[in-house]
Specification:
Blueprint lengths: L3 H9 L4 E3 L2 H7 L13 E4 L3 H14 L3 E4 L16 E4 L6 E5 L4 E4 L5 H10 L16 H6 L7 H4 L6 E8 L4 E4 L12 H5 L7 E9 L7 E8 L2 H14 L2 E8 H9 L12 E8 L3 H16 L5 E4 L3 H12 L1 H5 L5 E6 L5 H15 L4 E7 L4 E7 L6 H21 L24 H14 L27
The structure holds (2R)-2-hydroxypentanedioic acid (2HG) and zinc ion.
Length: about 475
């Protein structure tokens, strides 16, 4: 039997697509974290901003919380609906609304899949440069809500850099039209930037103006096998001095073992503890020659054991697969994910400090390091052993995350570089943001979401710990 609140919504918006079959609740209620049991009230699939406004007004009257939903590829539980929320899926709002070649701005709906957006940009002779492995499933709305980063941040920055305007429905049902594609706009607070990275806790993005840019020159990819942790950033310095980098990524032998077991091709004959994937401009012979010079310099200095430089597009793709398929190769093992960042200059001592903690704390788990080392962003995935049960494993990882957060604080780092806080990192937000910053965030939420219905329980609880809490997580 349909919940009477859902019937009233359907009555108010007869055209609205609503789903509440058990398989739909399961599918739309979870994200890639796979940790929480989905339990949404229902799924609404609006087709316009007006629909979203009607939904929010209904939610206020009924006191129903809402979870905005894109591709649900998030790794922090930001799109999880586990406590009777209405999931507002933007799946049907996935159109390109316009393109202006002078402004080089593409206006899109939030449900547009990143890969489709990139293809539209290429069709206009331009690119949308934010890119990552989940491109085929994640949506631009979700990318904006988490200020997603990815593999080319070193050259192009995060999603935030590319958002020229946003239309947003706030928690009071108001439609805001923020920045409107302007390059220059010094007229007070830039609310657009508050919404970017807010994980849907302040409002729902219903339209985005996305900036495009010129395609880069032809590039090439090389993978270096690196014998020691210390050498990683020596190689970085050498590459950055000489080459024009568009990606500088790393992974360990453990990550390689998982991707090889998952079907990737190993370009090396022997195992090294670390690997670097380096993408650089290679539009002519001189630029290619520079890459070889850097490689030789790294070999001479003992920073690199071996290396492979791609000779074709197919080989470049196969080298990229070594890095890009890590998440997928680990997915069935349900790893506990860390997504931490420090300033690039702090990477060597920070990695050393992390390694000491992890060696002591996780002697029996498989610890898989990889990430965007050229941006100061490390992903450390922890994989449970067979003997430990799932709840004990999470409890153990959360205990160690508190230790990591303390170490991060000494390096002025962040507990979430690009995945967001969601539910997974909520307990350690204080490790990264001061108490007064968090109090201000709560204040901002009260202004934009006065009824506390926008993705409640994500990032932080509405009420401070100790007072009555309105949250959705079971953690
Ligand atoms: C990546 O860089 C993604 O591949 C996913 O941010 C990282 O699975 C992860 O921990
Ligand atoms: Zn990443």
């Amino acid at each position: 039997m349909t919940d009477p609140r859902v019937s009233r919504l359907s009555h108010r918006l007869p055209e609205l697509v609503l789903k509440s079959a058990p398989a739909d609740l399961e599918y739309y209620g979870r994200d890639w974290t796979r940790r929480w049991t989905p339990a949404p009230l229902a799924i609404a699939l609006p087709s316009s901003s007006e629909d979203v406004q009607v939904i929010v007004r209904w939610a206020i009257e009924e006191g129903v919380s809402m979870v905005p939903s894109g591709g649900r590829t998030g790794l922090s539980g930001g799109a999880v609906a586990a406590s009777g929320e209405l999931v507002v899926s933007f799946e049907r709002m996935n159109r390109v609304l316009g393109f202006d070649p002078v402004d080089r701005i593409l206006v899109v709906q939030p449900g547009l899949i990143l890969e489709a957006l990139q293809a539209v940009a290429r069709g206009h002779g331009l690119i949308y440069p934010v890119d990552f492995a989940a491109r085929g499933s994640c949506s631009i709305g979700g990318n904006i809500a988490t200020n997603a980063g990815g593999i080319r941040v070193i050259r192009y920055g995060n999603t935030r850099e590319w958002i020229a305007g946003l239309k947003v429905v706030t928690g009071s049902g108001e439609l805001l039209d923020l920045n409107r594609g302007l390059i220059k706009n010094s007229s007070g607070y830039d609310l657009r930037h508050l919404l970017i990275g807010a994980e849907g806790t302040l409002g729902m993005i219903v339209e985005a103006s996305v900036r495009l840019t010129d395609p880069p020159p032809a590039s090439n990819v090389m993978v270096f096998a690196v014998p020691a942790m210390d050498a990683l950033m020596q190689v970085f310095a050498a590459c950055r001095r000489t080459l024009s980098l568009s990606a500088f990524e790393f992974f360990t032998d453990r990550a390689l073992a998982h991707v090889l077991a998952h079907g990737a091709q190993n370009p090396f004959d022997r195992v090294s503890p670390f690997y670097l994937v380096i993408e650089f401009d290679a539009a002519n012979d001189a630029q290619q020659a520079l890459a070889l010079e850097v490689f030789e310099q790294c070999l001479e200095n003992g920073w690199v054991d071996d290396g492979v430089i791609s000779q074709s597009t197919a080989q470049a793709e196969s080298l990229w697969r070594l890095r890009e398929s890590i998440t997928e190769s680990l997915a069935s093992l349900k790893p506990y994910k860390n997504d931490v960042s420090v300033r690039i200059s702090a990477i060597p001592p920070f990695m050393q400090a992390m390694r000491e903690i992890l060696d002591i704390e996780y002697p029996h788990y498989d610890v898989v390091w990889f990430g965007h080392i050229g941006d100061g962003n490390l992903h450390i995935n922890i994989i449970k052993d067979e003997a430990t049960d799932a709840d004990a494993f999470i409890a153990d990882c959360e205990r160690v995350t508190l230790l990591l957060a303390k170490t991060l604080a000494t390096f002025d780092g962040s507990i979430s570089a690009e995945h967001g806080i969601g539910l997974v990192k909520k307990k350690v937000l204080e490790g990264t943001r001061s108490a007064s910053e968090i109090a201000m965030m709560r204040g901002i939420k009260r202004v934009l979401d006065p009824h506390g219905l926008m993705n409640p329980g994500k990032v932080f609880d509405v009420a401070e710990a100790g007072s009555r809490q309105k949250g959705t997580s079971r953690d």
